[in-house]
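Form P-L/3: holo structure prediction, ligand guanosine-5'-triphosphate.
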Amino acid sequence: MAAKTLKIPTVLSADELLDKAFGRASKVTINGTDALDKMKKTTLGRVTAIGDIIKDTLDKYVDTFPRIEKEEDFFPELVNLVVGLDQYKRSLGAVRWASTRTEILRSEALRKIRRSKDPRYIDIARNEFYGRISSVLRQISKDLLFLQSARDKIRKLPSVSAKVPTLVVAGFPNVGKSRIVSELSTAEPQVAPYPFTTKGIIIGHMDEGWRRFQVIDTPGLLDRDFEDRNAIEKQAVLALKYLTHVILFIMDPSETCGYTLEKQKALLESVQRGFEGVEIIVAESKSDILRTDSGRLFFSSETGENVDVLRKTVVDALKRIDLGEEGDV
Ligand SMILES: Nc1nc2c(ncn2[C@@H]2O[C@H](COP(=O)(O)OP(=O)(O)OP(=O)(O)O)[C@@H](O)[C@H]2O)c(=O)[nH]1
Ligand SMILES: [Mg+2]
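OUTPUT (holo model):
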């Protein structure tokens, strides 16, 4: 997914694109059998070049911006949050329209110029084309500016795969989330930026035979009461929902994290409400410090106690996730 979004080129403004197209075209000169023939061929060459450059550039934008068809998914939700999906689609639609218009205007102009035997009419047809093509680009100038800023934001979105069964780790700060994510991950987890958190999200992978699972730690997102968040933060959390197949909720009964067990239970309930229908595995951390008789799964990243049991529980839950052909963006 990231690879796809990284390929988006910088988006030129309407004026920049016009400058580029007209600048290149002005270098075109084609010889002819006489003055009229030369003028005609040169004008045809310039109109063709302008049309080509503008159309190719616009088509490249349409092709490289991520196509968002299925909206109820992680990536579209994020795009919606950071740029606004309606405007995104409208602007891409406007660019597509401008590309089609360019093609039509160019064909019309070429036809008129080819037919013309009078240099004055050739000039008129050419100027008409220049004027119209400028006007088309001016009409989409706001869309181009929007897409340029959208590109910068989309490029910063995290590169997580929607195709891989994913475990998301939740729990208050300091309960031991990051440590268990490292324990469970095959390699050192990577940090990816995530809008609305300063820390980014931490992505690890678990390899189980031929299968690969994703483990995601989300500092700043699932470590506060859902209800305490502002609307955008809530959406940022909900976007995660599309990515989350199983939640590992970590509780620290030793309370060395700085949160009472009561508060932690309240957070768990809040996560349960926010992620209805998602399997939530609750595990108590830091069993080297304190073990309760709650009957919950417990483990210690410090001593390694029960980390294997936790891993197996998590892997079994992830194995039950069948993504089929779904999950692609
Ligand atoms: N004794 C003991 N300490 C642990 C254990 N797991 C984590 N810790 C300690 O608890 C502190 C917090 O651990 P982290 O893994 O950073 O906690 P976190 O939940 O990722 O915290 P945030 O990133 O702030 O949300 C660190 O000092 C860890 O060393 C454990 O199993 N036993
Ligand atoms: Mg952490």
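COMMENT: The mean pLDDT is 90.
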